[in-house]
Amino acid sequence: MRELEAKFRVDCSLLAEVRRRVESLGFKLVDVVEELDYYYSHPCRDFAVTDEAVRVRISRGLVELTYKGPRGGGEFKSREEYSVAVGSESIKRMLELLGFKQVMEVVKRRSYYEGRGILVSIDEVRGLGCYVEIEVKDGGEEVIKSVAESLGFTPGDYEPRTYLELLLEKRASP
């Protein structure tokens, strides 16, 4: 599966207004969850170089293992992504036994909104702040641009880096 998404930073004090705008566009709130994402490094290749990621996500007691491929071209982030549900958190230990090392934990409170084949997520990310992600399965960049403009975002508001990249940069800076 290939996902196409765009992320926009938003001032956390404006979240109530952003929620109102999202709902005024016809998107319906479908869930609010806390997600714990654990990212791993590969024992034989550098994911920072290959632009890949392996993640274990825990949310509502469900555990999911995800592979994210390198980003493709285009204005917004597009990449292959495969996820499988796994039975328990023991997948984390299995990865470690196979030589993978946990490099970062990303904790976020995420509000999912759906409508017109589009997923809008409002994220409060521990240590980073607040963001809005717009994701489409069917459709292209024009769909994302249209929704982003309707929400008041400009092309300059687009954040191309992943939460993992942002947190690693923050950790590396003095």
Keywords:
Hypothetical Protein Pfu-838710-001, 5 helices
Describe this structure in words.
Strands 1-5-4-3-2-6-7-8 form an eight-stranded antiparallel barrel, surrounded by four helices. The termini are far apart. With about 170 residues, the protein is an alpha+beta fold. Helices cover about 25% and strands about 45% of the residues. The chain has one domain (about 1-170): Beta Barrel (Hypothetical Protein Pfu-838710-001), CATH 2.40.320. The chain has five helices and eight strands. The longest helix has 10 residues, at about 15-25. The protein is globular. The chain has helices spanning about 15-25, 45-50, 90-95, 140-150, 165-170, and strands at about 1-10, 30-40, 55-60, 60-70, 75-85, 100-115, 120-125, 130-135.
Describe this structure in a few short sentences.
24% of the residues lie in helices and 47% in strands. It has 174 residues and is of the alpha+beta class.
Could you say how many structural domains there are in total? 1
CATH topology: Hypothetical Protein Pfu-838710-001
Shape: globular
DSSP strand content: over 45%
Mean pLDDT, rounded to whole units? 93
Please trace the helix and strand order, writing H or E for each element.
Answer: EHEHEEEHEEEHH
Strand order of the largest sheet: 1-5-4-3-2-6-7-8
